[in-house]
Structure formats: C-alpha cells, structure tokens
Design a protein that fits this description.
- The complex is a heterodimer of chains A (89) and B (180).
- Chain A has one domain: GroES chaperonin (10 Kd Chaperonin, Protein Cpn10, Chain O).
- Helix content of chain A is 4%, strand content 45%.
- Chain A has a six-stranded antiparallel sheet. Chain A has a two-stranded antiparallel sheet with strand order 3-4.
- The longest helix of chain A has 4 residues.
- Chain A starts with a strand and ends with a strand.
- The termini of chain B are far apart.
- Chain B is mostly beta strands.
- Chain B has a seven-stranded antiparallel sheet with strand order 6-7-1-4-5-8-9. A six-stranded antiparallel sheet of chain B has the order 13-14-10-11-12-15.
- The radius of gyration of chain B is 17 Å and the shape is globular.
- Chain B has one domain.
- The chains are: A mainly beta (89), B mainly beta (180).
- At the A-B interface, β1 and β7 of A face β12 and β15 of B.
- β1 of chain A pairs antiparallel with β15 of chain B.
Amino acid sequence: MATPKACNNFIFIIRDEVEKEKAGIIIPGKGRVKPSRGEIFSVGGKVTDPDIKNGKGKKAIFYAGIGQEIDIDGTVYLCLNEQEIIGTI
Amino acid sequence: MISVNGKILVRSNLSQKDTMVINGVSFKLAPKFDSNFRETSPTIATVVTGNRFLKKGDIILCHHNTFYEPSPYRVEYDLFSIPYDKIVFGTLDEHGNISPLNGNTICQRIPIDNRPEIPIQYRKTFIDRATVLDARWTPYKKGQTILHRLNAGYDIVYNLGGVEYRVTKVHESQIVGILE
C-alpha cells in the first residue's frame, strides 16, 4: 500500500471522523459538518514553523472548507499549506 | 547585444504549427480556427542571445501565450524578448526530446480507468497525480508518482520537423507530495 509523503511547505492531515450522530439523533448527510481538525500525517521539508515541523502525530486545527483532498487507496488525506494551519494541540 | 533583467532574445516561427507530417505525407493545417490555444499557438523558439543556461542556437520550449502578433514580448516580426524564469520550460534536442529547466518536471498523466476497450483519448486521468518522466534539477526521480495541486499539470503541444509531440509538465512549486 502506497503512503504519501509531503513535499515543499505542504502538510498531509488525516481529518477526524465526521460526526454522524448527536445526542442520539442521526444527522443526515447534508447536515454533517466536516471537522476542521485532524492528525498530522506527514510534513514537508520546507515547513518552517517548529511546532508543525515536529508535529507528526499531533492534532492540528485548520480553517474550515480549506485544502485539497487526496484519495490514496481509500484513505483521504487533506493537503494543506503551512499557512492554513491555525494551531496544534 | 547582451540581454539584461533576466530576459533572453529568441526567434520564433509563428507558422510552426501550420504543417504536420503523418506517415511521410505533409498536411497543411488551419490551426488559427481552433479555439484551444495550447494546440494552435507557437511554443518553440531558437535562442539568439542567451544567458548562462542557454547558448545561441538552442531550441527552447515556451509557454503558449508568448509568441503571437501583438505580444508584449515582441521586438520585431519574429524576434521576441522573453523573461527566462517564467516562460521557458525546457530545451529540445533534434529528436524532440525535452530537458526541463526552471524547476519544471516532465510527467505522464495516470489513467483512472485502464480498460483496453476504451480508446486512449477517452480514458480519464487523475487531476492530482502524475508519473515523473524527467525531473533534472529537482529532487524527484524518474518513475516516481508525484501528487500535485489540482489541475497543475500543463499540457504542452509542440511541432518539431513536422512531427507533433505532447508532454505534460508540473512545476516544482505545485508538487505537494510523493507516493512511497
């Protein structure tokens, strides 16, 4: 199975799972909101921020509705620029 | 004459895509009626005054929006002064093989559906990944699969010696990752 490795100042993130149920009520597909946080999977070599650079495996928060989704063997990775990350947890 | 401000002087035949040789027969084309400018606009030029990377007489491959009649780069009829780092994609040898320059990588699109019953021209390809064919001056290797920004692949069509060639290039800055 091929795994992606980020280049330049890009970061690959595996987004947290979408909430399908809230307080026992199933949320329909249209109402589901993609969370704007996820786990850092791979960090490109030109990333300058030390927190992101050493942040593999950490949770990151980013702006909603941003980034490019890349599907590799069924796993969806979110590709973000360094500037698009708000912070790490 | 020495070009300054990172520019080079080139000559380009503006009717270079008007003829094509197929199986030894020369066909006259009417590309000016085609609306796809990547197919119709001239892309090949010969260096008149180069820089430290290009010498006089080199054949270069340029962006398709460079060589046309009211072009801002035009000096006289077929003489153009073009910025080296933005417009030049690579050099060509006499057989039409391209050597990329300026951080460009020559790639091949990856088809989504490889069923043989579908003609090649109708097979859809990925818009976010490609296989590297030639990537000198960049850290990527031949045969490697790169992931790039959506639709970052730029198709170049050029006609050398009556033979049409097509390659896809991706700039280094548009590459987001590689597959290992």
